[in-house]
Design goal:
The complex is a heterotetramer of chains A (303), B (156), C (540) and D (626). With 303 residues, chain A is of the alpha+beta class. In chain A, helix 7 links the parallel strand 13 and strand 14. Chain A folds into 3 domains: 67 residues, Ubiquitin-like (UB roll) (Roll); 132 residues, Alpha-Beta Plaits; 70 residues, no CATH class. Chain A is built from 7 helices and 14 strands. The two termini of chain B are 22 Å apart. With 156 residues, chain B is α+β, with helices and mostly antiparallel strands. Chain B has 2 domains: 54 residues; 86 residues, Glutaredoxin (3-Layer(aba) Sandwich), CATH 3.40.30.10. Chain C is α/β, with parallel strands linked by helices and 540 residues long. Helix content of chain C is 30%, strand content 17%. In chain C, a hairpin with a 4-residue loop joins strand 18 and strand 19. In chain C, helix 3 crosses helix 5 and helix 3 packs parallel to helix 9. Chain D has 4 domains: 104 residues, Glutaredoxin, CATH 3.40.30.10; 210 residues, Rossmann fold; 84 residues, Ubiquitin-like (UB roll) (Roll), CATH 3.10.20.600; 62 residues, Alpha-Beta Plaits, CATH 3.30.70.20. In chain D, the strands form 6 sheets. Chain D has a 5-stranded mixed sheet with strand order 12-11-15-13-14. A 4-stranded mixed sheet of chain D has the order 2-1-3-4, with helices on one face. Chain D has a 4-stranded parallel sheet with strand order 9-8-7-10, sandwiched between helices. In chain D, helix 6 runs parallel beside helix 10, helix 7 packs across helix 10 and helix 19 packs across helix 21. The chains are: A alpha+beta (303), B alpha+beta (156), C alpha/beta (540), D alpha/beta (626). At the A-C interface, helix 3, strand 8, strand 9, helix 5 and strand 11 of A face helix 2, helix 10, helix 12, strand 9 and strand 10 of C.
Chain lengths: 303, 156, 540, 626
């Protein structure tokens, strides 16, 4: 798809690989280029599972985008379409190689960014396939489940399980935010549908330049865990009882006041959190210092 | 079990581009490249199994499944083609009961097609192990195969 | 970090010490690997055979707790072979002469004896680092979580100053922070000795400023650190604790002592998203929300302040921590009003924390900014100390090797090293409630094949690990990841609360606990049986 | 002077058991105590594979054909007597006359054997033989010149790459010489993958030192210290002889340090290919040497600037390198006098297919196809008519009778829609179906595509499928246009030489044999009688004598009929094997064109395409083309 016409060159050139030289005249949308792209698209869709109706990437698919842009409605090449079984064996994403266009982006990201070298081109000719050795499930490989291959896949060959049937791409809101795990501060996009997170997409704006690890990519579902605390709890006779916010806060405030009156600020200690926001940490130390009158504030900075 | 692989690894692991000759030599010893062998080579060379498998599946020369005792190569070069190599190949398939690229279940014969054996003067030509048979007709195939079947039976 | 993460790609030599980067900070690990792939040199100093060892030009497998000796040894060779940056040392440092005297004692031979690393390897590493045009040192809790943690850090800094690897892109001393907002929590003054922006609480001038700013009277004396709090609570000096989003029962050393301390309190309030092991000990538990349900900012390990954006509404009555604190303050009778939410709180922070002076949510919409960022027009600071050190000149601290507080002995013959692994995080509160649990759902104590054989233990066998402070059971992974004589465990799994084993001895200066090393012994609960039917334990 | 008995040890003759002949000769000569009198040699290829095994007796030049071990006793008799063994002499098929010496054989008369000069005359496993034949002499000359002067000489000679593209060799060297790199490499491309070409193999088998000498010259010119010969593992004999040659050259000081006191260091290693046609492409070849999948990379940067291990690398093919000793022996000017304006020197062709004299021929550039096919090749056997010649293997094109008088050089072939390629020349007669032949070539390239770029990986498969449809009688007229447009796209957009030339056989056939395609599609007929689906066997009732022979021989029982009444063939059951036709003594069985099934199913689709076209031509919402 990256072919362009260089004036004077015998054939079309790959824009991504041809160094620019002085005086080079490059045509990016000449008739010749457009026809070549159309033909390439026709070839691609001739060997592609075209069940776009229910495809997870329908509407967010580079193959569709280009077919639309270059008005490729159908392919005249009716022939062999290779069908591969879908691999659903890992907890995070499916591998549906009937939709693979063999661009090799997953090979590159896995080898050059992650360094896991899970994928490579296998076989050759028409049977060329981009996959793991022996089509192993990813648990059997050196895969670290960073999910970057899923994020770079331009089509629906690699799809997060959590997004399956969870919403059409245009219904999904993407919210850029900061990963809640380690200190690298990766930027990522939460995919949200009906007030639920259904997946994560790459975001190139942060220090991670779009790269992620397994925690950032797949470690978000605790947000919807049924174990989440839903109501304030107060322990009575050794058992937690759900109470209203008013009741809980009144009780805490009363106890704080009592202890402050009786023992002074030195009887308090507060642990704030390296997982909370700056704003919350600021308010917490302000609360401890200005209201509870203590500098006994720490967090697990050293852990 | 995998005799000689360690020695070969020792010889090749530090040579840039040593993977292809290593695979060639290992296959020479073991006849084909089993998964265990590829895994051993991957860890010995310090590269991923995917890369080793990618290379092994790219080249015609490498075989990932066991091979027959007699390797029949039917030349499908242009010269052989215009002189009826396809008919010879079909006759072979019929006689052996396998498709080209496969091995008989008793591991006696493997039927391959090759791009060119370089003996175009003898077209159509086939080789069975190191023996060359030229100017072959489909009619000669059953007899030829029978000869090797008998030979195999005697040895076993 | 003095420099930013992606500067790793520009450097010539990377020294990684005490950081299993590819597991604990994977994306930084990618950068290191990419740098190596582009031809940059990598030196790894770690007792464990971490993933990065595979890509390293040199691997120094020093004994746990001998970092200072190793670093001083490197400095020794750099001085001896005349590879130091004389101009930089002369113009921008002090304390050099004393430092020179100290490291003179650390000959490669002596260091080899202390650390177990061959002298030749130390010389090679020193020359590689010393000759580099640009070199960077990356370290993490493997350096800091020792009784000598502060000195370890100083030894690291000495090396960088000595070679002039400070204040330029692609150089620097880069600690990797373990959690998403450790940096921010420190910046915000959640420390016993600092107000926001590292303004000392015992400076009367600073104190009066904050009293004016917050319109409240403020305490004078420096507070207690987390480990000191535990002691004070056990002694009854502290009556009440308010814990927000922390799980010290699992994360802090000597976990049994922590439980005792919390139980001794008169009143414990815990605010969290789950009923953690710590929350279970509380009298009142306040439900908070996750990062996806609130706005705010995190500050990452390279001092980059970035937005956290609310993606979904909370479906229960749980509230953001900031809102809970505000409401609690109001209940306490204080007139706290932040109708603008976190954005308004950040405006207040910018007014009292000079490092954040130019930060606002509005600016951050366009992308993260590295502090210091004193004014709204300031672009932020990707690398520190370009024009000089905060304190004027870079100081050489002469630090000496001190053995760890607890070393293996006859009774407790093995060394326990603790750390993180790729698929889980911290005490597992979040990651273990995700699909990541399917990849790994239990602790696997790593043990060298030599030791395993000596104890008659096979892969996946169940063992009891015991220290002077407690015991846990775990299954074993036999691997040469760890050196002989030691075992490695994480603190992600509540079923195997590793920190009941660790020691609460702390660094005298910064009070960081010596989590990385302590002495343990192990035993096989059902000897013989375990060996005959190792798989009978796998169904637990 | 001892008389020489030269037994051909080229692969072709080896396949015809020439080794047995050699062994028998050896023991026969020894048995009669003649070992001293005769020098028996096992040589490289003589080129005339059709007539193998060949034995040449020097100095008389007696040329014995199709020698078997049974002939040996009488052959030695004749040697002893000094007479000619008439029965083994080459028999001119036209005149029936026996031809005594090699030089009188028409096959050799029009050739100009420069590169192949030594092939068949020296023992390829002996460096002494090569030295006696004047080998390695040009190195003295080369090392006295400056590298730039060497490059100039090659430029002056007008040498162009013999591997296919015809890029000027001197220019390639100049780029590599100017490129900066701590090391530089010479790669000899001996990955001769074209089915139907075996000139490189013959040179390596017959005269390996010549190639080494060429590599040394190239290495000196660009400043390389190391060379690789990338050779097909399917050429075991060539590998073995090359290996021996390299060892001997090292022993004699032609490889190693300070060669001939020149201060130039150079060594050569063999890398065996693992069977991938695409590795004939220079960047794929380099990937393969580096231990990777042989997937080509985009050029520029060209290997001359950034090649093996990212260092400047010159990749030259075997024949190109083998030309160098000739250039420095006779001088650039004399060399440039051979050939045409733009293509100098000679070219070796592998002449195969439907031709009387199969073999390897070396001819001056500019010779016509007619001269090669009819004068050297002896024309078409069995009285059939010449139909086409495929030049350049699967990457080349088929030329028709109208091109017979075309002088062959790089540019004239490109203009005609073919290419020199490595020099395979496959001759077709009227029994060859051009559609089926194109299908054959594509079935080859489809297998051989590396899989990296879409047009080649997917496109060639689709070309093949369309051709299969046509061959099977399911073709439609618009398929021909589809073939053309897709073929041009593949050429225009593929990354490497494989893809850029893969559609050539189809496109050239469409150009010169379009009526034959149309017959297949419109009339469902295969004029050459090759495409089975388009044939049916029929019994002409009037001629059938109901003898029952056909019925007896039909392997599938498709023929029915009682005594006394004409037999019939059930077209459903017939496998079209042709046995009945061969067996019928009365000529009652004929092959007839197809029955026209498969027509008329394309209307719907044609409408569909035009609708798409109509939609495409519409300017759409706000965004116009360009």
């Amino acid at each position: 798809m990256c072919v362009v016409e260089v004036k004077g060159a015998r054939k079309l050139m790959a824009a991504c690989a041809t160094p620019v030289s002085d005086g080079m005249e490059v045509l990016t949308e000449s008739d010749r280029v457009i026809n070549a792209r159309r033909e390439i698209l026709r070839l691609l869709i001739a060997n592609h599972d075209l069940r776009c109706l229910t495809c997870e990437r329908n509407g967010d698919c580079r193959l569709q985008d280009y077919c639309y842009r270059y008005k490729v409605e159908d392919t005249p090449y009716k022939g062999e379409v290779i069908e591969y079984p879908i691999d659903t064996n890992n907890p995070f994403f499916i591998r549906d190689y009937s939709k693979c266009i063999r661009c090799g982006k997953c090979v590159t990201v896995c080898a050059e960014i992650n360094g896991a070298y899970v994928y490579d081109f296998m076989h050759r000719g028409f049977e060329t396939k981009v996959t793991s050795a022996y089509d192993d499930t990813l648990q059997e490989t050196t895969c670290t489940f960073c999910g970057m291959c899923v994020n770079v896949c331009p089509v629906a060959a690699l799809v997060e399980k959590s997004t399956l049937w969870a919403g059409r791409p245009w219904e999904i809101k993407k919210v850029t935010t900061t990963c809640p795990y380690c200190g690298v501060g990766c930027q990522l996009k939460l995919k949200v549908k009906d007030n639920r997170i259904i997946g994560v997409a790459a975001d190139r704006s942060g220090p991670n330049l779009g790269d992620l690890c397994s925690k950032g990519q797949f470690g978000w579902d605790y947000v919807h865990s049924p174990d989440r605390l839903t109501d304030p709890l107060v322990k009575r006779n050794g058992k937690f009882i759900k109470v209203s916010w008013d009741e809980a806060l009144n009780y805490v405030a009363a106890r704080f006041k009592d202890i402050l009156n009786e023992w002074g600020g030195r009887a308090f200690a507060g642990l704030s959190s390296a997982k909370c926001t700056n704003e919350e940490n600021y308010l917490f130390q302000k609360f401890m210092r200005s209201i509870l009158q203590t500098n006994n504030i720490d967090h697990c900075a050293r852990l | 079990m995998h005799t000689g692989i360690d020695e070969l690894l020792e010889k090749y692991w530090h040579i840039p581009g040593g993977l292809v000759p290593l695979l060639q030599e290992v296959q020479k010893v073991h006849g084909y490249l089993s998964r265990e062998i590829l895994e051993k080579i991957a860890s010995g060379m310090g590269i991923s199994l995917a890369k080793v498998a990618g290379v092994a599946t790219f080249y015609h020369q490498f075989h990932l499944t066991p091979r027959g005792r007699y390797i029949i190569k039917v030349c499908m070069g242009t010269a052989c083609h215009v002189r009826g190599a396809a008919e010879v190949l079909f006759a072979m398939e019929d006689e052996l009961g396998i498709k080209v690229g496969h091995t008989t279940p008793d591991l006696t014969f493997t039927l391959d097609q090759v791009a060119c054996l370089g003996a175009c003067g003898l077209a159509p030509v086939i080789t069975i192990n190191d023996e060359t048979y030229g100017k072959l007709t489909p009619g000669q195939v059953p007899k030829l195969i029978e000869k090797y079947r008998e030979e195999a039976a005697v040895v076993h | 970090m003095t420099n930013s993460i992606n500067e790793i790609l520009e450097t010539d030599v990377i020294l990684v010490i005490g950081s299993n980067t590819t597991e604990a900070h994977p994306v930084t690990g990618y950068r290191i690997r990419q740098a190596v792939q582009n031809g940059k040199k990598l030196i790894v100093a770690d007792p464990r055979k971490i993933e990065l060892v595979k890509y390293a030009d040199l691997w120094l497998r020093h004994r746990p707790g001998t970092d200072i000796a190793l670093l001083n040894g490197l400095a020794h060779v750099i001085l001896r072979d005349d590879l130091w940056d004389k101009q930089f040392v002369a113009e921008r440092s002090e304390g050099f002469e004393e430092f020179k005297k100290t490291v003179a004692k650390y000959t490669p031979e002596r260091v080899a004896e202390i650390t177990g690393v061959e002298a030749g390897l130390i010389e090679q590493a020193a020359r590689m680092y010393g000759k580099a045009e640009k070199a960077t040192i990356i370290y993490a809790m493997g350096i800091t979580q020792h009784a000598s943690g502060t000195h370890n850090v100083m030894a690291v800094a000495n090396l960088a100053i000595l070679t002039g690897n400070v204040g330029r892109p692609g150089t620097g001393v880069d600690p990797l922070r373990g959690q998403n907002n450790v940096q921010g929590a420190c910046d915000m003054g959640c420390l016993p000795n600092y107000y926001p922006s590292y303004q000392p609480v015992d400076d009367p001038h600073v104190q009066s400023n904050f009293e004016r700013f917050w319109q409240a009277k403020l305490p004078q004396e420096v507070g207690l650190t987390v480990t000191e709090m535990t002691d004070a609570a056990r002694q009854g000096k502290i009556k009440c604790m308010y814990i927000m989003g922390e799980n010290p029962v699992l994360s802090d050393p000597d976990g049994n002592r922590v439980v005792e301390a919390l139980q001794a309190l008169e009143f414990l309030v815990v605010q969290d998203i789950f009923l953690t092991e710590t929350a279970q000990l509380a009298e009142v538990v306040l439900p908070a929300v996750t990062f996806a349900e609130k706005n705010g900012t995190f500050t990452n390990t390279e001092r980059r302040i970035q937005l956290v954006r609310k993606a979904i509404d909370t479906t229960s009555s749980a509230k953001p921590d900031w809102q809970i604190i505000i409401e609690l303050a109001q209940k306490m009778g204080h007139f706290w009003q932040y109708p603008g939410g976190p954005e308004q709180i950040m405006e207040e922070i910018a007014r009292c924390a000079p490092l954040y002076g130019g930060i606002s949510h509005h600016r951050l919409e366009k992308g993260g900014i590295h502090w210091p960022c004193p004014t709204p027009g300031h672009p932020g600071t990707a690398y520190l100390h370009a024009d000089g050190f905060a304190r004027g000149k870079g100081k050489f601290h002469s630090v000496e090797h001190v053995p760890p507080a607890e070393e293996p002995d006859e009774e407790y013959p093995l060394l326990l090293i603790t750390g993180r692994m790729l698929y889980h995080f911290h005490t597992g509160t979040m990651s273990r409630r995700s699909h990541l649990e399917e990849l790994r759902s239990e602790e696997l104590a790593m043990m060298h094949p030599q030791d395993a054989e000596a104890y008659g233990i096979k892969d996946k066998d169940r063992i009891v690990v015991e220290s002077r402070r407690g015991k846990v059971t775990t299954r074993v992974q036999v691997t040469d990841f760890v050196p002989p004589g030691s075992i490695f465990m994480t603190f992600h799994f509540k079923e195997t609360p590793t920190n009941v084993l660790t020691i609460a001895s702390t660094d005298p200066i910064c009070k960081i606990p010596e989590l990385k090393v302590c002495a343990v012994k192990i035993r096989v609960p059902f000897p013989g049986q375990a060996r005959r039917h190792p798989e009978s334990f796998s169904c637990h | 002077m001892r008389r020489k008995v030269l037994v051909c040890g080229g692969t072709g003759c080896v396949s015809s058991r020439s080794r047995e002949v050699y062994d028998a000769l050896e023991s026969e000569l020894a048995g009669r105590g003649l070992g001293e009198q005769f020098e028996l040699k096992y040589t490289g290829c003589h080129g005339f594979c059709e007539q193998g095994p060949l034995v040449l007796v020097e100095p008389e030049g007696y040329f014995y054909c199709r020698v078997t071990k049974e002939h040996v006793a009488k052959l030695v008799d004749s040697l002893q007597e000094g007479s000619v063994y008439e029965d083994l002499l080459y028999k001119d098929p036209d005149t029936g006359n026996r031809v005594k010496t090699r030089n009188d054989v028409p096959f050799y008369q029009k050739q100009k054997r420069l590169v192949l000069k030594n092939c068949g005359l020296i023992n390829p496993e002996s460096i002494e033989d090569y030295l006696n034949a004047g080998g390695y002499r040009t190195l003295q000359k080369v090392f006295k010149m400056s590298p730039d002067a060497v490059i100039d000489e090659v430029k002056k000679a007008g040498l162009r790459g013999r591997g296919g593209g015809g890029f000027p060799t001197g220019l390639k060297w100049e780029y590599a010489r100017k490129a900066r790199g701590d090391k530089k490499y010479i790669i000899c491309n001996a990955d001769e993958g074209d089915p139907g070409a075996f000139m490189d193999r013959s040179i390596l088998e017959g005269d390996p030192h010549r190639v080494l000498e060429g590599m040394l010259t190239a290495g000196y010119a660009i400043g390389a210290g190391e060379g690789f010969v990338y050779i097909r593992a399917e050429y075991p004999l060539a590998v073995r002889r090359l290996d021996i040659a390299i060892k001997e050259a090292r022993e004699k000081g032609f490889l190693g340090e300070n060669i001939l006191g020149s201060g130039f260091n150079f060594d050569i290693h063999i890398k065996q290919g693992a069977g991938a046609f695409v590795c004939g492409e220079e960047t794929a070849l380099i990937e393969s040497i580096q231990g990777n999948r042989g997937m080509p990379r985009p050029r520029p940067p060209f290997p001359a600037v950034k090649g093996l291990w990212d260092r400047p690398t010159v990749v030259n093919n075997v024949e190109t390198l083998a030309n160098l000793p000739i250039i420095f022996d006779m001088g650039a000017e004399a060399y440039a006098a051979i050939g045409t304006e733009q293509s100098k020197g000679t070219k070796i062709f592998a002449l195969t297919g439907k031709i009387k004299n199969t073999g390897l021929v070396e001819v001056p550039m500019g010779i016509t196809l007619r001269e090669i096919i009819f004068d050297i090749g002896g024309g078409i056997p069995n009285g059939k008519k010449f139909k086409a010649v495929q030049i350049g293997g699967p990457s080349g094109g088929g030329l028709s009778a109208q091109h017979l008088d075309l002088p062959i050089d790089y540019d004239s072939l490109i203009d005609a829609g073919a290419m020199m390629g490595s020099g395979g020349l496959v001759v077709m007669d009227e029994d060859t179906c051009m559609v089926e032949l194109a299908r054959f070539f594509l079935s080859f390239t489809r297998m051989e595509a590396c899989g990296k770029c879409t047009p080649c990986r997917e496109g060639n498969t689709r070309l093949l499928e369309i051709l299969e449809r046509i061959v099977e009688g399911r073709g439609e007229l618009q398929d021909l246009d589809l073939l053309e447009s897709l073929g041009h796209t593949i050429i225009d957009t593929s990354l490497c030489g494989l893809g850029q030339s893969a559609p050539n056989p189809v496109l050239s056939a469409l150009k010169y044999f379009r009526p034959e395609y149309e017959m297949h599609v419109k009339n469902k007929l295969c004029p050459a009688g090759v495409c089975k689906a388009l044939l049916s066997y029929r019994i002409i009732e009037e001629k059938c004598k109901a003898c029952g022979l056909c019925l007896k021989h039909c392997p599938v029982g498709a023929i029915t009929g009682k005594k006394g009444e004409p037999h019939r063939i059930d077209p459903e059951m017939c496998k079209k094997c042709g046995e009945c036709l061969k067996k019928c003594p009365f000529g009652a069985i004929v092959l007839a064109g197809g029955d026209g099934f498969g027509q008329g199913q394309s209307d719907h689709k044609r409408n569909h395409v035009s609708r798409t076209q109509a939609l495409y031509n519409l300017k759409s919402g706000g965004r116009e083309r360009h």
